[in-house]
Amino acid sequence: MCGIYGFIGFKDNKLLEEMGHTLSHRGPDDQQYFQEESINLGYRRLAIIDLQGSFQPLYNEDKSLALVYNGEVYNFRELKNKLTDKGHRFYTEGDGEAIVHWYEENGSSGFAQLNGMFGLAIYDRKIRKIILARDHFGIKPLFYYAEGKKLIFSSEIKAILVALRKLKIPIQPNGETIQKYLLTRKHDDNQETFFNDIKRLPPSSFLEWDLNTSHYQVQRYWSFPTGLEDKNITFEDAKNKFLELFRNSVKLRLISEVPVGTALSGGLDSSAVVRMINSLVKNEQKTKNSQLFKTLGERQKTFSAVFPGEANNEKFYIDEVVNQTRVDNYEIRPQREQMWQDLDKLIYYQDEPMISSGPYAQWKVMELAHHKGIKVLLDGQGADEMLAGYIPYHFIYLKELWREKKYFRLLQEALSARDVFWPFIKERALILLGIKKGFKISELFRFPDSLLINSHQAATQDSVLNKRLEEDIFKNSLPALLRYEDRNSMAFSIEARVPFLDPRLVEFVASLPANFKIRNGWNKWVMREAFKDLLPEKIRNRRWKVGFTTPEIAWMRKSAREINTIINSESFRNRSYFNSAKIRERFKEFLEGKNEESLVFWRIINLELWMRIFIDK
To answer: Which of 540, 565, 580 is the last residue of a domain?
Structure first.
């Protein structure tokens, strides 16, 4: 795991060093460069595999290819075997060198066969091109600025900002991205960032920069397998294959030469990861020389955020997993007051605004794991978007059944999920009866008419479950969650791994019919059934979903002093985006319990603090 960065089209040794220093948290173990003509590549290393070797840049045999790389490719041994059979020679024991030779053999299309997470840059001397690439699901980040003959790239935006300031290029906020964020909560859903002219490379894509012409193009190397629904597979076969693929994915993601831990929220997904690791460890218990024993120790270490006395406290479920597995569980109790002390730092490391205070709970979990010496942490991210884990997916499935005229099945599902639907129905009824009052969010903001027209958003899929899941994997939900996880973990020099996002597992789940994902009022049906012998029943059959989050409404109401200080400040009143008088009025109502729009006020506060950190300086 590392941070990569660089620029093309000019030379500046001091700038290359400064960009690397900005990313030192991503790689505290080493810093190296590749420079040739106007090509400047750099990396910071967090050593995880082949600790004494695999120093970057990495090359092929004749050094016609040079690589800097951030991430892990878990099937590197399999790739090396294939490449050795074709005559390639290897000088390291790590995974990065496999990428160089695999690209040499297969070109950019070969990225599709890399099972892992990566953001990489390759200099290909023979064709005079720079290749930037990102993994299938965008687990690892990669950003770029391209203008004229200059290309600047980095694992994090903050390093690009260092270069832009050095070049005296103005740093401006992206008004359309900000408007969409404030009005709809959407962010990280396309190539645009919160900064004008700084783009994110999309998942499963590569950028090819021609050194002769300074022209570039972005292309996909892999496409999500839509329309390939397997109508012949039996549920029993699907359940068994899911379990087999998940087990293999977890085992691959335990490859490490440094201590490995696991995040445990008490939910279905993180509990499944913990329990699967526990099962794998038991199989190798007698072999103390095994790699699992070396990386996990005698007892697996897990890390949790708990909120005693709050509505979102999951300690009951966490304890259920701990009691079954006998793991060493470490708990952190995030505090509201501490969040306000940490908030500027959190926003700085995130690079871009967040839609809730939830990432702070994860931040504290990563901080705790760091203090306990953990360098790799597995997490359950991605399962919800694969397997319809959020409550609104039930409504989409009901619409799909209606469209297909499966009325009896629709009635069965609606009745089976009535306990899930009731809170939504109750909320709507309270608003319709005037007992609970909301407000029009747009009244809090001021945007030019031209901006409103330009930022028109395409409708979200709401009647075909599998198509909506694809949207949420690549646009609506998962990209932001992966960004939060990457920045939170790397802020503490920890590599976060997400076993549910193994391409083989995702492709398989994508091929399953919708009724394998939602059935009898239960989401994640195939997963729940596959884990029957793995998870405690209280976990496997739990409806209530929380995840790593904070008691946000309660915290926001207790934070009147901090928030009023922000929304009454001169800088806030002068922001062109905010109707500050109306915001103050609605926030007063929030404090009085007349609305519960904590997420709206969080976005407003987060944006203001982000502007101070990145734009005003």
So the answer is: 540
Answer left, alpha or beta for residue 41, where phi above 0 means left and psi between -120 and 50 means alpha. Answer: beta
Apex 531 CA angle, 530 and 536, nearest 5: 155
Q: Give yes or no: residues 281 and 372 share one domain.
A: yes
Residue 464 CA to residue 366 CA, distance in Å, equals: 36
- Domain assignment of residue 155, given as a range: 2-220
Q: Identify the sign of the CA torsion 304, 305, 307, 310.
A: negative
Domain-embedded: residue 605: no
Query: How much of the chain is helix, strand and coil, in % rounded to 5?
Result: 45, 15, 35
The CA–CA distances, whole Å, from 447 to 86, 171, 178, 566, 576 equal 59, 20, 10, 21, 8
- Cα(151)–Cα(8) distance, integer angstroms: 5
Distance (Å, whole) CA 120 – CA 84: 22
Task: Give the domain CATH number at 198.
Answer: 3.60.20.10
pLDDT < 70 stretches in the chain: 1, 227, 285-294, 297-298, 431, 433-437, 449-459, 544-548
Q: In the prediction, which pLDDT does 229 show? A: 76
* Residue from 615, 607, 604 nearest 579 by CA: 604
Separation of CA 188 from chain center: 10
Residue that finishes a domain, picked among 160, 192, 220: 220
CA–CA distance, 129 with 213 (Å, rounded to integer): 10
CB burial of residue 506 (10 Å; 0-12, 13-18, 19+): buried
Q: Is 138 left (phi over 0), alpha (psi -120 to 50) or beta?
A: left
Q: Give φ, ψ of 68 to 5 degrees.
A: -120, 145
Cα–Cα distance measured from residue 360 to residue 346, given in angstroms and rounded to the nearest whole number: 8
Q: Are residues 207 and 125 in the same domain?
A: yes
Predicted pLDDT of residue 546: 59
Residue 175 located in a structural domain: yes
Omega cis (within 30) before 479:
no
Over residues 307-347, the pLDDT tens digits come to 998 888 899 999 999 999 999 999 999 999 999 999 999 99
pLDDT of 167 reads 97
Q: Which amino acid is at 381?
A: Q
Asked if 514 and 264 count as a contact pair (C-beta separation under 8 A), the reply is: no
Question: What pTM, to 2 d.p., does this model score?
Answer: 0.95
d(CA 596, CA 602): 12
Q: How many domains does the chain have?
A: 2
The tokens describing 418, both together, are: 């009535």
Residues 364 and 512 in one domain: yes
Q: Which helix (H) or strand (E) holds 280?
A: helix 268-283
DSSP state of 615: I
Question: Angle, nearest 10°, between helix axes 268-283 and 235-252?
Answer: 70
Q: What is the distance between the alpha carbons of residues 304 and 264, in angstroms, rounded to a whole number?
A: 5
- Residue 17 three-state SS: helix
Angle subtended at Cα 473 by Cα 136 and Cα 252, rounded to the nearest 5 degrees: 50
pLDDT tens digits for 16-72? 999 999 999 999 999 999 999 999 999 999 999 999 899 999 999 999 999 999 999
Amino acid identity for residue 489 in this structure: S
